[in-house]
Specification:
The structure holds two protein chains of two kinds.
Chain A: H1 2-31, H2 34-41, H3 50-59, H4 66-78, H5 94-129, H6 134-148, H7 151-165, H8 184-191, H9 195-210, H10 213-220, H11 225-247, H12 249-262, H13 268-277, H14 281-309
Helix pairs in contact in A: 1-14, 5-6, 5-8, 5-9, 5-12, 6-9, 7-8, 7-12, 8-12, 9-11, 10-11, 11-14, 12-13, 13-14
Chain B: H1 2-9, H2 14-24, H3 26-48, H4 80-116, H5 118-133, H6 136-162, H7 170-201, H8 205-212, H9 217-253, H10 265-272, H11 281-308
Classes of the chains: A mainly alpha, B mainly alpha.
């Protein structure tokens, strides 16, 4: 187990080194120096003193050659120093920004995951129990509909419907804590991302389990239908559903990006967009590392929890 | 005896079978029709559009739908219906080129990895793992930002050398950027699929049988390996085209894709977000179009999935 974890971690770390290197190189050779871009991009800085530009470049080490810059970044990162934001929020340590913004995105993602499973699993089970009846058809077709429509269409359309047509809410804006009612719509929109896959997985898992001999035996020995479902069917259904949940983290990350932009929530998604727009190296590097970390942890979580849920599977 | 007679009477190829199955699926056919219309609009849209997509009618700003402007006008008095038609051109171009580039890359890497095996295979799959280890949208944004300046400079240099006004057209520049960024994240999916197909199909008994009969390697490839790997590839290509349309719209929605004044459904949608409360017609047009086309892609994909799975007996 410890060996397995270590191997996984090492393999991920080797990949991360490549990703960090390539990202840094793309920013350095492609996007260009953020200080220079600040002067080129905005009119008000256009005729600013080149001496100021040079001082700023020196301050952030941007006058160094690529290899030196990259080495400095990695050395500082190893010490726990993520660097300071250059343009977006001037000179503030990136770690401080992330410490403020990551919890917001994580709370949103967590709430969305819970919502998606609380709605998705019962829907899938119900659809399977009513296989080929109208309820099943309804669930399957609405799931197809939700799959097809991208987040950046769903969010404005729901806003349009809920604010203008039925008029049950004001436009949610910004972040007022996870228990504020402004959070409802963003969480619902993010939850719509993984929801279809959860419903599908739960439905097909129940359909598969229903034809198993042990379910027939349970029925034959006179167990009530409710007990058959609770005792014999739910557990085998959990395995594929939990797996999907882990693999759907990426949908959550992508969804959060758009949702945070539409509802102006200061999470990591919005930070990513702002960081990329301003070519703020330290912020771009930080969100890239966080993004790959989220994917790694959720994949690892799936592989670790699988043997616990299904004893037939073993680590390899 | 009976079965022999039957077989001779009705011998159908995989594709004829697939076509029969596909035709029976009403939703999939409807999806195909919608996508065909969408691609056609991408091709001829600008000629049938009632107005030019840049023509500003400053006396008719932000007008809701009227007989003159079927879907109304935007904040510069441009006809929304015409802009949607031009947006279809953007979306169709992106869908086609992105899929073509990433498919070419995928075939190259996939067959190379599958046929070589060993170290080469491990290395190529490691690289494609790393591409998939970064959230896709973030990677697209990174590549897009990284490529913008070099491509602008490259176009400038080409203009200096050739004095061809084509290189001053920034519209093409945006397209080149979006194609490359989207293709660079999509190829690992194709590479994996093709590598898997190369490995599994060449292990099949019918390939062994063909080899045993003395068929040349070339014929084994063309007659057995390629046709039998084509089904999953057709499904993947369709899915990729749909995904490319979404990603282009998403990227433009974030302000990183196709830049104004070029028309893109994503840009139209994000532009409407400032004004949608007073002028909801700005929002409905692009949102409904994206939703409709995506739904068509999903139905078509499901239909192809059912039709092309040879293990399915109907």
């Amino acid at each position: 187990m410890a060996h397995y974890l270590l191997v996984r971690l090492l393999r991920w770390a080797s990949g991360l080194v490549l990703i960090v290197f390539v990202t840094y190189a793309m920013m350095f050779y492609g996007a260009g120096d953020p200080v220079k871009r600040m002067f080129i991009d905005s009119e008000e800085f256009a005729d600013a003193d080149p001496v100021i530009m040079q001082i700023l470049q020196e301050k952030y080490g941007l006058d160094q050659p690529f290899i030196v810059q990259f080495r400095n970044y990695v050395v500082n990162l190893a010490r726990g120093d993520w660097g300071n934001s250059i343009r977006l929020s001037v000179d503030r340590p990136v770690w401080e920004i992330v410490k403020f913004r990551l919890p917001i995105s994580m709370q949103l993602g967590f709430a969305a995951t819970i919502l998606a499973s609380l709605v998705g699993i019962p829907l899938g089970v119900l659809a399977a129990l009513k296989h080929n009846r109208w309820l099943d058809r309804l669930v399957v077709s609405s799931v197809t509909f939700v799959t097809a429509i991208p987040v950046f269409v769903t969010a404005p359309m729901l806003l349009f419907f809920l604010v203008l047509v039925v008029d049950v809410m004001d436009v949610p804006y910004g972040w007022n804590g996870i228990f504020h009612s402004d959070v409802i719509l963003p969480v619902v929109v993010i939850a719509l991302g993984p929801l279809p896959i959860i419903v599908r997985q739960a439905r097909s898992a129940v359909l598969e389990v229903m034809s198993q001999p042990f379910v027939r035996t349970a029925r034959a020995k006179g167990l009530s239908e409710r007990m058959v479902i609770a005792r014999h069917m739910l557990r085998p259904v959990m395995t594929p559903v939990v797996t999907t949940l882990g693999l759907q983290m990426i949908t959550l990350v992508n969804g959060a990006l758009f949702v945070e932009l539409v509802f102006n929530i200061p999470g990591v998604g919005l930070l990513t967009i702002e960081g990329i727009r301003t070519v703020d190296y330290p912020i771009i590097m930080a969100v890239t590392i966080i993004g790959t970390l989220i994917i790694f942890v959720s994949n690892l979580f799936v592989d670790l929890i699988y043997p616990l849920l299904d004893p037939r599977v073993r680590f390899s | 005896m009976d079965s022999f007679a039957l077989q001779r009477a009705e011998s159908r190829s995989l594709w004829q079978d697939a076509f029969r199955r596909f035709r029976r699926n009403g939703l999939a056919v409807a999806g195909l029709v919608v996508i065909a219309i969408f691609l056609l609009m991408g091709l001829i849209g600008p000629w049938i559009a009632p107005y030019d997509f840049l023509a500003q009618d400053l006396f008719n700003i932000l007008k809701p739908p009227t007989p003159e402007h079927w879907l109304g006008t935007d904040e510069l008095g441009r006809d929304i219906f015409s802009r949607l038609l031009y947006g279809a051109r953007t979306a169709a171009l992106v869908a086609f080129s992105t899929t073509a580039i990433s498919l070419a890359l995928g075939i190259l890497v996939g067959t190379w990895a599958g046929l070589q095996g060993g170290r080469v295979d491990q290395f190529l799959m490691w690289i494609s793992d790393q591409v998939q280890a970064v959230p896709g949208l973030l990677l697209v944004m990174l590549i897009n930002t990284a490529l913008r300046r070099p491509i602008i400079n490259w176009f400038d240099r080409l203009y200096e050398q050739t004095r061809n006004p084509f290189y001053l057209n920034t519209n093409w520049l945006d397209f080149v950027l979006v194609f490359s960024a989207l293709a660079l994240i999509a190829w690992p999916g194709f590479a994996r699929l093709i590598r898997g197909q190369v490995l599994s199909v060449s292990q099949e008994d019918y390939v062994l049988a063909a080899r045993a009969l003395g068929t040349t390697e070339m014929q084994v490839m063309l007659r057995h390996v390629v046709p039998n790997s084509l089904g999953p590839l057709v499904i993947a290509v369709t899915a990729n085209m749909g995904a490319a349309v979404v990603l282009e719209a998403g990227l433009s929605f974030l302000g990183l894709g196709v830049q104004p004044p070029n028309a893109s459904w994503g840009t139209m949608l994000s532009d409407s977000l400032r004004l949608w409360q007073s002028f909801p017609h700005l929002l409905i047009g692009p949102a409904a179009t994206i939703g409709f086309v995506q739904l068509a892609f999903v139905f078509l994909g499901d239909g192809l999935n059912d039709a092309l799975d040879p293990r399915r007996v109907t």
